[in-house]
Write a structure and sequence with these properties.
Keywords: Metal-binding, NAD, Oxidoreductase, Zinc. By secondary structure, the protein is α/β, with parallel strands linked by helices. Helices cover 27% and strands 26% of the residues. The strands form three sheets. Strands 3, 5, 6, 9, 10, 17 and 18 form a seven-stranded mixed β-sheet that branches.
């Protein structure tokens, strides 16, 4: 059976998104059909629209989603119809060299659905991050479905599917923030503020939020930052050092992903401290650092891909922290919108007016 549903598609580079009728097949082996409840509007979707990911147009946008499994294919055991799930783009294979080393959070062979969703004329769609969730239904690999409790707001927990998980994981998993440590986060968009929340959850006692927008710094303080720095008005490296006894922070997280901010992160950390890059740079960006400084400062320079998360481990744990009142996922939901409002949501995102716009279906 083929399902005709409404979905948001971008057909060419920088074209406006359009609401289209698409065809979604029933699940085959290893696949699951999911009725979408909510989907966050993420910067990655904007990158697809702008051609910054690849040129495999048309794209079926959306990936930061919660849904209910409506059908599964043969041999699927991970989920069953009726399960509430958060979709993820790391469906671990269990067989690659990372999985065999016991590091499935670095799986090099994550799975997507084999069958293709199409436009009504048969044109194959490329789903964003293998998900494509700005749609009433989507088809994914069963391993892309992570079961979560169904007594929580789907709009809030769905954000674990990408940006919020990336930020929290950058602090907890990649940065390995310990109790009593100092953490600085450069860039207070959704991912950066999630990193602040992750540092608080991990027990950091000094959490420094850095941004050029004082309103974003205040939002970070509401999520646990103990100090704020307006980097338009003062040198963030010197300001971070001043707040950490002159030494620099134990962990500095670059949630922007530009050469300028990475250099700030590099020099704002303590000796033997950790730098974590979670902001996504453009492919043409380059950085130059004195090799003697890289050697002499010690510590580690890490990149954080999806917060180094393992969805089956991290999503349920973070949902439980949310239910216990220790993680305010509700604060990341700035507005709730419909499928027809996504172009406007991209504009608000570009202007820095929202943490997350969330589509409700």
């Amino acid at each position: 059976m083929v399902h005709k549903v409404q979905a948001v598609v971008v057909k060419e580079k920088n074209a406006p998104v359009s609401l289209e009728t698409i065809l979604v097949p029933d699940p085959g082996p290893g696949e699951a059909l999911v009725d979408i409840l909510t989907c966050g509007v993420c910067h990655t979707d904007l990158h697809y629209k702008q051609g910054a990911i690849n040129d495999d147009y048309p794209f079926l946008l959306g990936h930061e989603a919660t849904g209910v499994v409506s059908a599964v294919g043969p041999d699927v055991t991970e989920v069953a119809p009726g399960d509430r799930v958060v979709l993820n783009w790391r469906a671990v294979c269990g067989e690659c060299r990372a999985c065999r080393k016991g590091e499935p959070q670095y799986c090099f062979n994550t799975a997507n659905a084999t069958q293709k969703m199409t436009l009504e004329d048969g044109t194959e769609l490329t789903p964003a991050l293998g998900i494509g969730a700005f749609a009433e239904k989507t088809l994914v690999a069963a391993g892309q479905c992570t079961k979560v409790d169904d007594d929580v707001d789907p709009a809030a927990v769905g954000l674990l599917g990408c940006g919020v998980m990336a930020g929290i994981g950058a602090a907890i998993n990649t940065g390995e923030v310990q109790r009593g440590e100092s953490v600085a986060v450069i860039g207070c968009g959704g991912v950066g503020i999630a990193a602040v929340a992750g540092a608080k959850l991990a027990g950091a006692t000094t959490i420094i939020a850095v941004d050029i927008d004082p309103a974003k710094v205040e939002m970070a303080k509401a999520q646990g930052a103990t100090h704020g720095i307006n980097s338009k008005e003062e040198d963030p490296v010197e300001a971070i050092r001043a707040l950490t006894g002159g030494f620099g922070a134990d962990v500095v997280i670059d949630a922007v992903g530009r050469p300028e901010t990475y250099k700030q992160a590099f020099y704002a950390r303590d000796l033997a401290g950790r730098v974590v890059l979670v902001g996504v740079p453009n492919p043409d960006m380059k950085i130059e650092l004195p090799l003697a400084d890289v050697f002499g400062r010690g510590g580690s320079l890490k990149s954080s891909w999806y917060g180094d998360c393992l969805p089956s481990r991290d999503f349920p744990m973070l949902v439980e922290q949310y239910k216990l009142g220790r993680l305010d996922l509700d604060a990341f939901v700035t507005e709730r919108i419909g499928l027809g409002d996504i172009e406007e949501a991209f504009a608000k995102m570009h202007d820095g007016k929202v943490l997350r716009s969330v589509v409700e279906l």
